[in-house]
């Protein structure tokens, strides 16, 4: 190797290594002062300052993560929790998610477990699955929890809206029949929605809840689409954690065209479902006897 080149390579390695470390620096406030500042920001948050509040608190987490968690949980338990709906998601971690869901479901169901807050609670349970444990344990256990109409609607709304990933679809199939009348009311409203995907999903769920019905599930009419001129073939691969037995892995945002699939049919079942914004999803279900980490699907567009 040329002597000068060796020095250049070594210098480059040093620069790269240094770039991987960033000095945090001294905390800007003492812990009591930081706690009061965080509490004040949470008390005055509103749509107009929401982004600034999130950015500020996110920047402070390198020094005050535990303090922020304490104050987020305390603010959620107070009567002003509605103000946090727009910021609790971006600022949450597993500890916050677990505390918020358990308090809302088990301790203050009447005011903290509502349809208005269902999107927030569902988002936390989706992103931090362990936080959903008390909610699902109660709903799957015996005796079946006795819920007020509004509480049952919120349960159904969360389960119906949950993305079809992991075991959520299977779990919802076990719980919704326990509140069949309320679930059907929620789904009948969805069935008449202008949202094509929501209307189709409602039809699928209603069909499952009413097995005696022989009416076929029909995709709501959509606006005419421009001819597809995208890729004509491709490969899809699973990523993330293992897919449990009987659970789903979903590929999203696929073109809404007829496709021929090549995949391991001994391990996976596959079907398409409508997606968002004139796309479709490919849903794979692990039908093997063991969790699966890898799946590869080759696809090509067919006339």
- Shape label: globular
What is the average per-residue confidence, as pLDDT, rounded to a whole number?
A: 85
Ranges with pLDDT <50 over ≥5 residues? Answer: 1-21
The structure class reads mainly alpha
H/E element order: HHHHHHHHHHHHEEEEEE
Q: What is Rg?
A: 24 Å
As laid out across the biggest beta sheet, the strand order is: 1-6-3
Number of helices: 12
| Straight-line distance between termini | 57 Å
Q: How many structural domains in the coordinates?
A: 2
Helix content: 40-55%
In words, what does this structure look like?
- With 303 residues, the chain is mainly alpha-helical.
- It folds into two domains: 31-209; 233-301, no CATH class.
- Helix content is 48%, strand content 12%.
- The protein has twelve helices and six strands.
- The chain has helices spanning 3-19, 31-44, 50-77, 88-91, 94-107, 109-112, 118-127, 133-140, 149-161, 168-175, 180-191, 196-209; strands at residues 233-237, 248-254, 259-262, 268-274, 280-286, 296-301.
- Strands 1-6-3 form a three-stranded antiparallel beta sheet, with no helix packed on it. A three-stranded antiparallel beta sheet has the order 2-5-4, with helices on one face.
- It is globular and about 65 Å long.
- The termini are far apart.
